[in-house]
Each structure stands twice: as C-alpha cells, then as structure tokens.
Amino acid sequence: MTAPTPKLDLSPKVSDEVRKTTCYMCACRCGINVHMKDGKVAYIEGNRDHPVNRGVLCAKGSAGIMQVNAPSRLRAPLKRVGPRGSGEFEEITWDEALDIATSWLKPVRETAPEKLAFFTGRDQSQSFTSFWAQGFGTPNYAAHGGFCSVNMAAAGIYTMGGAFWEFGQPDWDLTKLFVLFGVAEDHDSNPIKMGIGKVKGRGDKVIGVNPIRTGYNAVADDWFGITPGTDGLLILALVHCLLKAGRVDLTYLARFTNASCLVNEDPNSPQNGLLLRDEDGKPQVIDRNTGKLAPWDGAGVEPDLSATHTVGDVTHRPVFHHIAERYLADDYAPEAVAERTGISAQRIRALAAEIARTAFEEEIVLDREWTDFRGVTHKTMVGRPVSFHAMRGISAHSNGFQTCRSLHLLQILIGAVETPGGMRFKPPYPKPATAHPKPHCKVTPGQPLDGPHLGFVHGPDDLCIDEDGTPKRIDKAFSWENPMSSHGLMHMVISNAHAGDPYKIDTLFMYMANMSWNSSMNTSGTMKMLTDTDENGDYVIPRIIYSDAYSSEMVAYADLVLPDTTYLERHDCISLLDRPICEADAVADAIRWPVIEPDRDVRGFQSVLCDLGARLGLPGFVNEDGSQKYQDYADYITNHIRRPGIGPLAGWRTGEDGLSNGRGTANPDQLQAYIDNGGFWMSHVPDEAAYYKPFNRAYQDWAVQMGFYDSPQPYIFQLYVEPMRRFQLAAEGEGRVQPPDHLRGRIIATMDPLPVWYPPFEDGHVDPEEYDVHALTQRPMAMYHSWGTQNAWLRQIHGRNPLYVPTKIWKDKGFRPGDWARVTSAHGEITVPVMEMQALNDNTVWTWNAIGKRKGAWALQNDAPEATKGFLLNHLIHELLPPKGDGLRWANSDPITGQAAWFDLRVKIERAAAPAEAQPAYPPIQSPVGQGPANLAWKVGEES
To answer: Residue 942 — pLDDT band, cuts 50, 70, 90?
Structure first.
C-alpha cells in the first residue's frame, strides 16, 4: 500500500497587496513589486513591465526588505552631547532640531552665505537640493560626482553631448562587438547583465579591458588585463592602427563632427589653435560643392575633410589633419605602448583589427528614412555595430578626463555613436556643453545665488574666481586648479575647510555622504580634521549638520543629525531634470512613494529641506505672504514649475485638452497616476528619430515637444574641444584672465583640445621603484557604496574582504593561503589578509570597496567580520599628492575636472605576521541606536 499523498499548498498566499515602486539598492532604479502582508513588506520582486529591468532583479534589490528593517536605522533627531566623534547624542524633537538648524543657518545666510558648505551624496534628487542651495545663496554646493565619474560625464558632454550609463547605452539589440572598460559591478548592473546576455546569446563577442577579471569581465570572450592608468594609451594606439589602415568613417566624420572645421595655425595670433568663425560666430568648413568657406550647419553644405584655407600668410587646416598628424606618430604605435600598458603589440593590433572588421565588414543598414539638420534626406540609417561602455575604472585617474575623451574619439572615428549597433544616447540626452548652464558663484548676503552652481565653462572668463584669481568655492571647483569641474570636488571640501583654503566656513551640511569613512581619501586624517580644535578650543569646522537614514560612521561626527527615511518610506523623484531612468528608445521618469509608513520619528530629507527652506525664507520655498510654499517633497514634486510647462515629472501633466506628457501645468493627481502605472512614466522615441539624435530633425522637433529644450539645437561632435584651447592660450599669456605661474605648464600639457595621454600624477610624486605595485578598489555587485554591507542577507555574500594578489607577486613574496600582508603607500600603512588571484594584472593588487566598517557603526557587533577582517584601501590614499617641496597643496585629482584620482595609488607589499584584526584598528564609537541582535529573524508580518 502506497503512502498517502501529502496535501501541499503549491501556491501559498505571498501577500495581501502588491505596491509598485522604484528600487534604491543601487543606481539602476529598477522597478519593483513590493508584496505586503499585514501592512509589512513580505517580499520584493522585479516589475516585468518596467523599462529598466523588465522584471530582472539582483540580490541587492531582493534584499531591500532587510534594508527597511535594518537595526541601524536612526530613530529620531539627535543633538551631540559628547565630544565630536564620540557618538554621544541625545534624542530631540523635530521642532527643536529645525530650530537649532535655523538658528545656525539664518545668520550665515544674512551675512556670508558662502560660509555654508552644502554637499550631498548619491541622493538622486540633485535638481532639488541644488535649487535649495541656490535659494540659500551659497556657491558651495555639489554632489558626489566629483569623486565618482565626472571625468566620464564631462568628457562625454564636451566631446559629444553625453557619455555612458545614465547618458547612453550600447545598442544591445544590434551590436556585434561589445568592448567594456572598467565599470563598477554595482552600477547599472541589471541592464548591463541583460545586455551582455543578449550579445552572448546571439554568439557575438564581448571583450573586457580591466586590470581585474571579475563579474562582467569574467564572462567576456577575451580579456585585456591592462596596467592601471594606461587605458588612454591603449585607446590611442587603437586609434593609430585604425588611421593607419584607413579604417575610419570619413563620411560620418565630415558631416557630423568638427573634424572638417578649420583651425587657425598662426603661432603669433591670439586666435592660434581656435576655430575659424564667421560674423555670426559659427565655425567654418570648406564646402565640397563650392570649394568655399561655409558655416558648419549651412543648408546643403558638404564639409570637406581635406581642404585647407589660407588668408594672407595664415593657413587654416581641418581638425582631421591635426588628428591624423598626432595619432599616426610612432609614439602611439602598439610597439611603443606595449610595455607600459602591459598588453603586447600583437594583441593591440588584433583588437584594432577586430574593431575595424566588425565596424566596416558587418555594417548594419536600416531601411529607415530620416532628414538631417542641413535639410538632406537620407534613405537609410547606416550603423557600425561596435559598442563601448566604460565608467569609473578609466575615470578615477589624474589622466581620466583625457582618457575618457580618447574613448569617445575612438568610437566617433568609426562612426559608432548614435548609429545602429553602436552607442546610443538616452533622452533627454544628447545635450552639448553649450546647452547647459555655466557655473554661477556671485554671493549677495540675504539673497539667492545668481544662477545654478554647476555647469560647463567655455573659457577663462567663466571661472569662479576673484579678480586676484582666488577660488570663490570652498572646493576650488571652476578655478585654475581644475577649470572644468562640472560636478564639484566633494572630496576636497573637508580638507579645504580645515585648512581655511581659500577661506573658513561656518557650517558643513551634508546628506548621505559617509565622508568620515569609506567616501573619503585619507580616512584617518579626515576624522582628525572633523574633530580638530583651534587655539581657543573651538572646532576648526564650527558646525556640522548631517542627514542619513542609518547610523553610519559619519553620524558620530555631526553636531546635529536629521534622520532620513528608508527608500520605501518616502517620496522620491527620478526626474528628467536630474538623472532619469530613460532608455535609448524611450524617455522615462519615475517615483518612489511611501509603500510603508515609518515606525520611527524620521522624515524624508527633501521634505525637511522644504520646511527648513520656509523657516529661512528662501525664494522658491515661501509664498508671497511668507508662508511655507511646499508642505513636503510630494507637494514640491507635484506643484513646482522649473520653467513654463516644465516640472520635476514629465508624465500626466495638465494640458490644454486634458492630460499631456513632457510639457503642461501641475496636475494634483499626478503622483497617483504614477502609482497606478507602476511608479513610472514612459514615452517612446519616434522610429524616424531613434538614431542620429544630435543631427536628426525629427528627434530635435520631438525633443522640443517633450520639453528637453525650447527650440531645436542640432550640433556636431567636438573631437577638437575648443574651450580647452582657450585655457591653453591663457596659460601662454593671452587674454585678460591669467592663471598663476605655477600652473601654466600643467595647463598647457594637460588641457590639449585633442585627447592626450600622460602618466598618472602619483607616478611623479613617489618613487615608482619603491612603490612598485598598483592598488585598486572595486565595487561588488552585491553592495552599493556602504549601505549594503550592513544588510543581513548581503553580508553573507561579502562579510569580509581579502586583498587579492596576482600570482606573480604571490610567488615572489612567498605568500601562502591564510597569510596577511603589510601594504604601504607614501601616505599610510595597512595590514590585511591576502588571497591569490590569477586573473589579475601582474603588477596590481585590489580589494572590494566599502566592506570594512568601524566598530560601533551600522549597529554591527564589535567583533563583526566587517570590523575585524574587513578593511579599506582609503587609509593609503590622500586627497593631496605627496609634497614636492614647493610649499603648495597639490590635489590628488584630475587637473581638468578635479575628479578624485582614487586609482592612481601605488604601494609596496610584504608578508606580515597575522594581527588580531585588520590594521589600522580604531576604538569603537558609541552608536545612537546601539547594537543590533546577533541574528535577525522574523516571520512575515510577525517579528521574533
């Protein structure tokens, strides 16, 4: 007799309700279905209807349930009662907290607004926080981009109107060769994984260029383990090979780039190196039809890449002549760069051949008619099916801006930007640098700033400096030290404020920026700067206000803590004014909304700014009678008008004949419309506008209709970035605004209008024979900044982090499994566990970033592996380069944008006796939320 069949419930009830919103466990902004049971979060899955992830969800997204239940969540506003850095606080009411903040900030605004430094981390609401800072009147505002990937973003916008990730993506459906340079594995991870899956599923090729072979590179068909900081040299060697073989798209270059624009070559002229322009200021080309000068955008003009123009004794040659002359030089031959890059000449030539073969022998032709900005109608869309993607890996070097420009040059030369199979922009991009505002820094006590803080300069006259050249911003953005710093320099704020260079500040106001730990270079020094006192016993940085959702390391250094909500407890706006969720074929934005209510006395930071802005009487935050204009952030999202017809959200606006998209007045039911649609809005790009966006009349007209800009703004790609030449001219002595003498040589060498490569700056400040090893950090897919390493599920994936050592060094130093190493830089020393790794550049060590935690933070146990076996390379890095003996403070940053040069680090490594815990070790800080339990467990709807 057989056993009775058990009665199993094969479809248990997962939830009572599903609430759809946007994930915040990384910057992908995926759509999620939050399953609710008994009013609590029971389960999180991907939203199959969402344009970003189409139902795919990673470990981080699923683990969001542990984030909203984390023991480290702050519970109420806090006022410091012990010494700064002790973590000793008392809980206070919101009224008291906002009264304190107002009492500190109001006199600053009325007397010296620049004494407030307001900087935010990756908050995804930068259009709002910058609006608040502009109303306050301080020039000192920026977000995290200056220590993340501003080199990529700025290089892309100056060169072609956008870059990768939030600006653009590979044409995943049509590309046949995908080349990936260093990309953090937690960034854009689901779309990249889905895209790589498409490419490999078709049998097409994926190539990885990265010193480290993990994640995306681990599934690549071929891997180039490049020496850190030499990516630009490799790319320009590829350019050399392509030019030498004649494998560039001359038609594309002539029509859609400034390769045909004429350059003044008179060495005695103040216009030397600038583009020849007509009376209307338009760059000139030679028209092939007439052989005469013509504006680049003239109707029916066919620009000539080869013709020159002579006026008197002055010759004007096209940009393309300069490109060929420079990159055909032997300096860029594969044999000349092989040793430095760590890639053999044979492999460099093979990669160039693979790119050329795919681009020109497997071209894609779409039978789709379109009309360009010159009025020429094209019957087809021709594509070069080679696509590239890159981010922080090539950005976070002191040569990163020019390296990123080199990559953009490479893909433009083969005609693989905005063409089928290549790199495609995501609306509302592309936007050239000239379509963005310039930076503003005029301070008037009691009044708003004279315009947006951040932007794109076009020459020395746009810098934020006084008449004597002194920087007007505390981070020295848009100064001669880093003229094109489009995202600011968050990593320099604390150091400069502590040094009083260029001036002292009164209040440091930060949001979601763990600057006392994993977000700072020189971590030990930063903690000291935050607690340092002057001769009177007062803190050198007098007041610190900080907002975070969790008890991070930075909380301990604040004087006033404004507790934020978690991402499922608040409204957020992923706006076209900021960093939207668009895809290449569609414009889209999204919201978050409170799918659960906070069980603590916390408030969304953006809503707090609405309240604080009203208390301070900031323009835009009060009505004419002085009353508060926006009750909270949801009210702001719904009713704020940035310019006529344009608000934070583009969907379901009120138009003349009902609801409209893109443009329209405020709709009181807008947020509910988003909620009903799964938390997002999307509108597809018309088929005839899908490619050639900067040059395509149909796209330009559609962009105006959607509100990206108010009139069509076609443009051509800037292979030769003329604003950079203007800075060189100033360094050569031309013009009214002059750089300090000690920077003239650096400006001339680094700010070349055509991409160049130069060694990372640290190579010239330390002895490369003593510090003979490169050291890198990398973000794991399972973590996002420091948030994930407190997550009970994700900690099981990465609870500790070894230093990975290549086999060559492992054997040379006699390492064995279980060993520890002493790693020393010119700045500091750490002692950490090591592990052998074969798929690694022979001269590079690396570790996962942000795993290491300080004892007492994040509600972790003091003996947690993150605090005893986890560590940071940040202790070895400094925001300043080692002194040169000239008495100057040289920032460890890219000299053009100021991006932090995290990946220039050089170290030496040796075996060491195993300590009790990773070194350096710091005493525990007292936590305002205490320590969490050793184990977290509950049944859905019932904590236990």
So the answer is: low
Q: In degrees to the nearest 10, what's the CA dihedral of 864, 866, 868, 870?
A: 160
Looking up tokens 């360094």, which residue turns up? 731
For residue 797, is pLDDT > 50?
Answer: yes
- Helix (H) or strand (E) holding 154, with range, is helix 150-160
Instruction: Give yes or no for a cis peptide into 437 (omega within 30° of 0).
Output: no
The full DSSP string for 697-725 is: HHHHHHHHHHTS-SS-----B-SS-HHHH
Mean pLDDT of all residues in 897-913? 97
Beta-carbon contacts of 915 under 8 Å, excluding residues fewer than 6 positions away, are 820, 831
What three-state secondary structure class fits 579? coil
Calculate the CA 941 to chain-centre distance. 38
Where does 808-927 show beta strands of DSSP type E?
A: 820-824, 829-837, 844-848, 906-912
Three-class DSSP category at 656: coil
Which DSSP string do the residues of 309-376 spell out, in sequence order? EEETTEEEEEHHHHHHHHHTSGGGSHHHHHHHHT--HHHHHHHHHHHHHHHHHS-EEE---EEBTTS-
What letter represents residue 228's amino acid? P
The reported pLDDT for the residue numbered 725 is 98
Q: CA 237 to CA 243: how far, in whole Å? A: 10
- CA separation for the pair 565, 551 (Å, rounded): 12
Of 672, 561, 548, 679, the residue nearest 604 (C-alpha): 548
Mean confidence (pLDDT) of the chain: 95
ω into 694 cis (within 30 of 0): no
d(CA 541, CA 503): 11
Q: Which amino acid, one-letter code, is at 753?
A: P
- List strand residue ranges (DSSP E) for 604-695, in order: 653-655, 658-660, 680-684
Q: What is the pTM of this model?
A: 0.97
Tokens representing residue 424 in the block: 């495609």
Are residues 512 and 123 in contact, defined by beta-carbon separation less than 8 angstroms?
A: yes
Q: Which residues pair with 293 in a beta bridge?
A: 286
So what's the pLDDT on residue 886? Answer: 80
Instruction: Determine contact, residues 363/861, Cβ cutoff 8 Å.
Output: no
Bridge partner residues of 574 (DSSP): 590
- How far is Cα 727 from Cα 733, in angstroms, rounded to an integer? 10
**Which segments within 434-578 are labelled E, that is strand?**
507-511, 543-548, 560-563, 572-574
Q: How far is CA 285 from CA 143, 262, 306, 417, in A?
A: 40, 6, 10, 22
CA distance 98 to 331: 61
Are 14 and 42 in contact, with CB atoms under 8 Å apart? yes
Task: Say if residue 1's pLDDT is above 70.
Answer: no
Q: What is the pLDDT of residues 726-747, one digit of tens each?
A: 999 999 999 999 999 999 999 9
Residue 32 contacts residue 47 (beta carbons within 8 Å):
yes
Compute the distance between CA of residue 924 and CA of residue 260 in angstroms, rounded to an integer.
Answer: 62
The stretch 244-253 carries a mean pLDDT of 98
**pLDDT at position 4:** 76
pLDDT for residue 495: 96
Omega cis (within 30) before 12: no
190 and 57 Cβ atoms separated by less than 8 Å: yes
User: Do 348 and 338 touch, CB atoms closer than 8 A?
Assistant: yes
Tokens representing 785? Answer: 């900044």
pLDDT in tens, 635-675: 999 999 999 999 999 999 998 888 999 999 999 999 999 99
Radius of gyration for the alpha carbons in the chain, expressed in angstroms and rounded = 27
CA 627/CA 85 separation, integer angstroms:
37
* For residue 475, pLDDT beyond 80: yes
**Other CB atoms within 10 A of residue 600 CB:** 15
Cα of 932 vs its chain's centroid, Å: 33
